[in-house]
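User: Please predict the structure of the protein below. I'd like the answer in structure-token form so I can feed it into my own downstream comparison script.

Assistant: Understood. Taking the following sequence of 200 residues as input:
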Amino acid sequence: MNIALFKTTDWLEVVFWGCALAGTVFLFLRVVLMLTAGDFSEVHDGDVHVDHGAHGDVHADSDVAFELISINSLTAFFMMFGWIGLSCYKQFALNSALSIILATVTGIGCMLVTAFLFRAAKKLVSQGVKFNIYDTVGKVASVYLNIPLEGKGRIQISLDGGMTRELDAISKDHEEIGSFQNVEIVEIIDKNTVAVKKLN
């Protein structure tokens, strides 16, 4: 490799080339992974999600901030920063400061567009059935594991959309309830436990 090349090459041109090539190669690899093995940048819950009430708003705000600085948006920033900066600096012969400014503005704009597109695409994906344990009060469930006089058993309850949910259950009337009997949920004990009573 000719060492003289590094002496004559402008440092800003090297930076632009590095960002452009790194961003482009990484974007290509991301697309290949998404097409062949799925996108592993996002972590999804199961089909049933617990509704956390007011805390969900805070979580949603943090999701917006995270998407803005996600791998996808950062890749878009560096790729556009490099190519636009290189075009301004070499093709249009703009000075260093103006090339950097234009490259940065374009990169940030592309970053925002990418974050918006991925957020919009995520909204099109079904999030499954949202489960709120407080909505089960008054509903009928089936005993899955025997509920003793004192202690917990297990019940199954059908959710909207054909999904089922298993919950711990205690007997409200302090009587044993055998398996496969239908019961009514009358009280919420904690986030995964309810009190039930036999149906008349």
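That's the full token string. Confidence is low (pLDDT under 50) at residues 1-8, 38-62.
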